[in-house]
Task: structure prediction
Amino acid sequence: MLGIDDPQIWIAYLLCFLSAIGCIIYGMIHWNDGKENEEAC
Amino acid sequence: MAVSTPVLGIVVLIYMMVIFYLGWLGYKKTQMTEDYMVAGRKMNPYVLAISYGATFISTSAIVGFGGAAGALGMGLLWLALMNILVGIFLAFVIFGKRTRRIGLKLGAVTFPELLGRRYQSRFIQGFSGALIGLFMPLYAGIVLIGGARFVETTLNINYDVAVLILTVIVAAYVITGGLIAVMYTDALQGALMFLGMALLLAFTYVNLGGVVEAHQALTNIAYLVPESLQAGGHLGWTAMPVFGSPIWWNLVSTLVLGVGIGVLAQPQLAVRFMTVRNDRALNRALLVGGPFILMMTGVAFTVGALSNVYFFEKLGVISVVAAGGNTDLIIPQYINSAMPELFVVLFMLTLLAAAMSTMSSQFHTMGTAIGHDFYREFLKKGELGQTINITRIAIAVTILVSVVLAYMLPISIIATATAIFFGLCAASFLPMYVGALFWKRMTKEGAIASMLVGAFSSLFWLLFVHAKEAVPFGLSQAIFGKATLLSGTWTVVDPIIVATPLAFLTAIVVSLLTKPIPQKHLENCFGK
Result:
């Protein structure tokens, strides 16, 4: 896979991309969430 | 160095002018203590994300750890994954939101203050502040060394002068502009780092004939691994080391787990969650933070490993050999020989930005830890007064200590000092930080006990068991007559693996044995 024989490495390689994409998706889904707790103390 | 000095000099000059402008902007916007300490709690989410990432990633993360990947291979990508999942996702979504809310409710302006107020203990705040003030200069000192070495080699300036120039510039905007200046300049520096690393990845894959081709070429030269590394468990640059071998332990315990988890309890990073207005800002910050870290460590580790293919094709040797045995030189050597000249200029700026963005936050955190947490809250029992001025003086003093350390420390201590600080922070702060946010039953006594056990067991393991530090320090040899107290695999297990679980255990046991925190205070922290 991807020129890498050891699955322990190509899995890590793919997971790095997937987790960064996951961050983007999370940010987009929750784009407007959490505005309400803007209280000041 | 292949680059013409005038070109680089002009580029650096323009960069410095923009930095000064941003520093001045921070100065102008700083009017209250909250502005100076937590950027007025209204920072833009993208500035937060890039500032967090740029502080997280220093020159040593790119050059030092990238070089480590040149020697150990792509197994370090597990650290890149940890950086994104733990250092960004878990940190922002799980830790960040609660830190922001509790920090706001308790009016905390620093990480030690958040812990101290949550557990109603000035001792926790004072001790944490002292620990940061005492050990962070070690970490700041080595980042300073990295930055000054860059200025020295690229601009042909004497090293001692380079240290002073770099310090004065960063100190000027940190002392006057506080966290707003730090975060604004971080954002510019982060953007430069992103561009530099993206181009580095693109150039590397293009040079080596494509993504799969480059990886395949690296897989094919596994037979070149030197015998000494093979004996330690090294199976090639696209394979994990043999399970349980010394190299495996070093990779997994010190690098992947130590640095990967240690980041959660870094005071200069945790304080950033308190700089935004609401949870929405933290959600939006993720959008930038995840890809940013992928571009930093993901690229550094991949390119570091792939440099072996380049050096083998060009010189017939592997990276470590091409760099004369010093892994810290692999990335600079690779950049200088494989990249176009204009890119070398940009990458040098990337490294300077990486050093400065980390240093500025370190200076700010050290100063507030001593000036605010230790002096004002612990020694003066919270007495009001010239907090900002005291903090500014404390920043100046800790910077001075860092500079002295930068002159004194040997070069070989760079990676070690980073690991010491990360490990110490994780063991001392992580259990009570996790408890502060998620476990209402955790008591003040549990927090204090875990902090003390974490700090001292971590230092004990460093000085008496972990061979990498215990042997050069020589304290174990002097007291007990042997280099390390334990032998075999124990000597390669990182302190964080031992001290952090021990501190967690202490926190749980002591908390269950002592009186819970009054319900009223918990309502103050978490709301009803």
About this structure: Chain B touches chain A through 50 residues (CB under 8 Å).
